[in-house]
Design brief:
The complex is a heterodimer of chains A (about 300) and B (about 325). Chain A has about 300 residues and is α/β, with parallel strands linked by helices. Chain A has helices spanning about 5-30, 35-55, 75-85, 125-140, 160-170, 210-220, 230-245, 275-300, and strands spanning about 70, 145-150, 175-180, 185, 190, 220-225, 250-255. In chain A, helix 2 packs parallel to helix 3. The longest helix of chain A is centred in the N-terminal third of the chain and has 25 residues, at about 5-30. Chain B has 2 domains: about 15-170, Rossmann fold (3-Layer(aba) Sandwich), CATH 3.40.50.970; about 195-325, Rossmann fold (3-Layer(aba) Sandwich). In chain B, helix 1 packs parallel to helix 7, helix 3 runs parallel beside helix 5 and helix 9 crosses helix 10 (about 270-280). Chain B starts with 14 loop residues before the first helix and ends with a helix.
Chain lengths: ~300, ~325
């Protein structure tokens, strides 16, 4: 993994994240809707992984030595496919086909259709076992690649995740890193009883998940927590994970569902939605403004 | 080159031991072969493999779902994992992982499902597997093999290893090997997608799959010979893909079809044969197997008898069926 980037690299990553948000918004606007909430909450994590952490070669997507990535929360494909496109695995133009008949891109990623995608996912809770298998394969094949898997809150409710967590600890998979996109919502509402009961039909949300770090630690993992929208904190967290010996690492990244589009933020009902024309124009203006500001900061040498 | 097995080599073995013996040979030949088992390494007869290749075995404890996902992850990185597990649990507890993690990406995972059908006997409904073929037959990309004796078990395991893509091999627990059907692997003509004609005849055809259904069907045909009834017996070990041509030919040439399987008669071999015939050559048929019920507790032999997976009962069924023709 590259060294800790300097301020201008951080700004560049922030700008890339804003570009990815724009790419996702445009793609879903063409498609008529999508998983805005959980896609937007994951974009900063995906940016740091694909533009800083992962050892990959877009010209050679099946490179045997590459780091692997599994999108356990497969419904964030609306953020993932734009990330792969921007990273150079395929042309961004192809994203315009999202959701259409015979497109390579739909709500959930297919490894046999998307260049750079290491595993087909979509059913929640499958990612961690898949990643454990990949991490074990490195041991048999005597390779030094690392394996990353992005979970959502829902993934933490699945028994299969915890089955795999036990196994990963048993095999001391230090080449495995789980990232939890902890946006605190699943389909039926907020986790941890944080809900306004009016927003979720009178129930107090779905399941409580805290204390999340303690759960992973109790399963034998190294666990740390960071702001999942703070690029510098994410970079540091991945740096720590890379240095961990004898244990897999879980990074609990606190995120905001719908991050970047204020009218969607922390609104559980926008798990899957479409933007009105007014909202779409607002999004374009907002993201363009962000990108301009970041570009100016980059040009000013990262001092602003 | 490793010698393949003859019936003498496998005398006295149960099918899962035959799997274990064959698997050690395959592992010796191909270092990419690994195994994963959720606390059933000993029962699925992997112990010798584990002794020889401890770093190519992953004990996953009692975690059915994660075990199948892990196998998919291993395959996605270029290995050829064998998931060794009981048939009822791999086909139901981890059904979605088999379908979504293995079959959908078409990964090179082999599933060895032991203790299939009524072979666990008094294990009862939790441990019997009378639905696995019906469930897994609806999963695209997945080949299903149900070998009928020890020699064919070795052959099926080798075919699974050599195939590209996912294969489910259905094995029974027990030792009720009443008849060796094949002399040696060299003489066992099983191929994926091909039926094997075990007994010739034109009065009716018995299509059977697995152990003990095929052995009992063959013996039923021999019994029927004494009454002057000449019955064709097809070993349908390749349940999927099914040899549609052999099924249609049997229907055209014999005009009466009987299926025999240690499985619910819904959705298994009988269902698959009925689908082919309904589309291509509607023919009167009858299905022997478990008639959509949870079976009684009891020794497997007694259960096979109760549900007519037994040569004299199969012969009687054929005679009665031909009378109605």
């Amino acid at each position: 993994m590259p060294l800790i980037p300097d301020k201008s690299n951080i700004l560049q990553l922030e700008k890339t994240a804003a570009e990815l948000r724009l790419s996702m918004v445009n793609m879903l606007q063409t498609a008529g809707g999508g998983h805005f909430g959980g896609g937007l909450s994951a974009i900063d994590i995906l940016t740091v992984l694909y533009f800083h952490v992962l050892r990959i070669d877009p010209a050679n997507p099946r490179w045997a030595e590459r780091d692997r990535f599994v999108l356990c929360k497969g419904h964030a494909n609306c953020a993932y496919s734009p990330t792969l496109a921007k990273r150079g695995f395929f042309s961004e133009d192809l994203l315009k086909t999202y959701g259409q008949l015979d497109s390579h891109f739909g709500m959930h990623p297919d490894m046999n259709k998307i260049p750079g995608c290491d595993m087909s996912t979509g059913s929640i809770g499958h990612g961690t076992p898949l990643a454990v298998g990949m991490a074990l394969a490195a041991r048999v094949l005597k390779k030094d690649y690392r394996v990353f898997v992005l979970l959502g809150d829902g993934s933490l409710m699945e028994g299969s995740t915890w089955e795999a967590a036990l196994i990963a600890a048993q095999y001391r998979l230090e080449n495995l890193c789980v990232i939890v996109d902890r946006n605190r919502f699943t389909c039926d509402g907020p986790t941890d009883g944080l809900g306004d009961s009016q927003d979720c039909y009178g129930i107090r949300g779905t399941l409580s998940l805290e204390p999340v770090e303690d759960k992973w630690r109790a399963f034998g993992w190294h666990a740390l927590r960071c702001d999942g929208h703070d690029i510098a904190q994410l970079v540091q967290a991945f740096q720590q994970a890379a240095q961990m010996k004898g244990k897999p690492t879980a990074i609990i990244a606190d995120t905001v569902k719908g991050k970047g589009l204020p009218f969607l933020e922390n609104r559980g009902e926008y798990h899957y939605t479409h933007l009105t024309d007014v909202q779409y124009q607002q999004a374009l203006t907002l993201l363009a403004g962000q990108m301009d500001a970041l570009q100016q900061s980059i040009e000013a040498g990262g001092d602003q | 080159m490793t010698r393949t097995f003859t019936r003498q080599d496998l005398a006295g073995q149960v099918p899962r031991s035959v799997f274990g013996m064959t698997f050690v040979q395959l592992a010796e030949q191909n270092e990419n072969i690994v195994a994963v088992s959720p606390d059933l390494m000993i029962s699925t007869r992997l112990a010798e493999f584990v002794r020889q290749y401890p770093y190519r075995f992953f004990e996953t404890g009692v975690t059915e779902q994660a075990t199948v996902g892990i196998a998919a992850g291993l395959a996605a990185c270029g290995l050829t994992p064998f998931v060794c597990q009981y048939a009822p649990f791999v086909s139901m507890r981890s059904c979605e992982q088999v379908r979504t993690d293995i079959a959908y990406p078409n990964l090179n995972v082999k599933i060895i499902g032991t203790h299939a059908g009524m072979s666990p006997g008094a294990g009862g409904a939790t441990h019997l597997s009378l639905e696995d073929i019906a469930i897994l037959r609806a999963v695209p990309n997945l080949t299903i093999l149900a070998p009928s004796d020890n020699v064919q078990t070795a052959r099926a395991v080798r075919l699974a290893a050599a195939a590209t893509g996912p294969v489910y091999v259905r094995l029974v627990r027990g030792s009720e090997n009443s008849l060796d059907l094949y002399a040696s692997e060299e003489d066992c003509p099983l191929e994926i997608g091909k039926a094997v004609t075990l007994h010739d005849g034109n009065d009716a055809t018995i299509l059977a799959a697995g152990h003990p259904a095929v052995q009992e069907s063959f013996q039923a045909a021999e019994l029927l010979e004494r009454d002057g009834i000449h019955v064709r017996v097809l070993d349908m070990a390749s349940v999927k893909p099914m040899d549609r041509e052999a099924v249609v030919r049997a229907a055209r040439e014999t005009g009466a079809i009987i299926t025999v399987e240690d499985h619910n008669i819904l959705g298994g071999l009988g269902g698959a044969v009925a689908e082919v015939l309904a589309e291509e050559c509607p023919t009167r048929m009858t299905r022997i197997g478990v008639p959509d019920t949870f079976v009684a507790l009891g020794p497997s032999r007694a259960l096979y008898d109760r549900y007519r997976i037994h040569a004299p009962a199969i012969a009687r069924t054929v005679i009665e069926f031909l009378k109605k023709k």
